[in-house]
Amino acid sequence: MTVLPSALDPASPDYLAHREAMLAKLDELAAEHAKALAGGGEKYTERHRKRGKLLARERIELLLDPDTPFLELSPLAAWGSDYPVGASMVTGIGVVEGVECLITANDPTVRGGASNPWTLKKAFRSHEIGYANRLPSIHLVESGGADLPSQKEIFIPGGALFKHLTQSSAAGIPTVAVVFGNSTAGGAYVPGMCDHVIMVKERAKVFLGGPPLVKMATGEESGDEELGGAEMHARTSGLADYLAADEQDALRQARRVVARLNWRKAYEDPGPAEPPKYDEEELLGIVPGDLKIPFDPREVIARIVDGSDFDEFKPLYGSSLATGWARLHGYPVGILANAQGVLFSAESQKAAQFIQLANQRDIPLLFLHNTTGYMVGKEYEQGGIIKHGAQMINAVSNSKVPHLSVLMGASYGAGHYGMCGRAYDPRFLFAWPSAKSAVMGPQQLAGVLSIVARASAAAKGQPYDDEGDAALRAMVEQQIESESLPMFLSGRLYDDGVIDPRDTRTVLGLCLSVIHNAPYEGARGGFGVFRM
């Protein structure tokens, strides 16, 4: 075995400082996660409970197999917006009757579970994950439909929710709806388009138009139950396949539906795996609080891969990018990890070759980000950094094996693209609280704007306001710094969640297991033209 050595000293001042900085960021993260857990707040939570109803996460807990994990996705959706953190919906992946399923649950304590623009984005992202990985989906429904004040942002794009359900069904991916309360207007099409539908007696209300709308449209007088009650749909319309006595019974029936799906993963699980040789707790002290200070990503790799065993590819060439082969929870992975931040021509060419090898061997790729981007300057431009960086981006773009990305530190500029950022469709992308991502670093961006403004003034023969320039640079730096932070980016669903570094191995193991639900094959050729 090629066990990675470690030079990390948990007693050193640098390690302790890095650990303290990370723990402070984790405390901030916990406070924001608490907002999502709180839903609509104590008042609406209590009102919901007094109606004898379970909260969204309680429903999920009863649905899942006992003592199995739930990988929640996008818990910070809508952070920094005018809408509550979490976007009135819980999404994630969990095991039901031994089957890995995509689960979505409306949070009825937030405006009755109504969908706002961020709810749509969160639902769309969950569909992408479920569809790509062929996960049966279970939708725990209690929503009044669109949040009407924001309908202009919801109505037109929101129709894709129903398209996604039918596309999953057409692809042979089972869809299940469990209706606990209102599922009105457009929301009525969620059970209408799912393969299996369970409704809770005297609770579920499914209709295109409720009694007030029917009265206005047709003059007809009707009550909730006769118009869209669960019993009517079970006995008369046929929309409900199963009638549940209460919420617990509905979740029991959902588990039985999944048990009868005859669902099989495309690949068998690899079985037990050897844990890393080093303590995962030490991951807290590897990334510096100041991302200008480099760190060795091999220290991270040694604490997440099986047996800390890593066969490095081209270790002496392009040394600011570590590439190599390992196993993680028994699954083979190829790893690309930024070592010194900047990507040069050698690193770019090395990455392109490594990605091609992974595709030949059908091995998923894991990208560990800490890059300021591709190197600039006369020497490097003349040396072909554009075409070499393009080779790496070409390889990432056309690779067919599944990709996973973790932003540990910086992820700036086109380096974010070359390391399989969000726009390059990784199956999953997570960030550590230490991560930052933007077109470039705050100081660099502010400096560029200053240089351009100074040159413009000189070209016009005008004096330059140095005091105004300093104020502008400070303002821009502050803005870019705040927009680079992981909670800001996670709020916009540019990642699938901000995670504790100590959970990295577990999260990646769950993702690798999910990926192996769907068959995949690497690209055999099929890459764009590599400019040589």
Name given to the CATH architecture of the largest domain: Alpha-Beta Complex
Shape: globular
In percent, how much strand structure appears in the residues?
15-25%
User: What is the subunit organization of this protein?
Assistant: single chain
Average pLDDT, rounded to a whole number, is 93
**What is the highest CATH level, the class of the largest domain?**
Alpha Beta
Number of self-contained structural domains: 3
CATH-assigned fold name of the largest domain: 2-enoyl-CoA Hydratase, Chain A, domain 1
How many DSSP H or I helices? 20
> What does the largest sheet look like?
8 strands, mixed
How many beta strands in the DSSP annotation? Answer: 17
The named CATH superfamily of the largest domain: 2-enoyl-CoA Hydratase, Chain A, domain 1
Q: Class by helix and strand content? A: alpha/beta
The termini sit apart by: 36 Å
Compute the CA-based radius of gyration: 25 Å
Protein name: Acetyl-CoA carboxylase, carboxyltransferase component
Domain CoA carboxyltransferase C-terminal: 275-532
Domain CoA carboxyltransferase N-terminal: 22-273
Keywords: Transferase
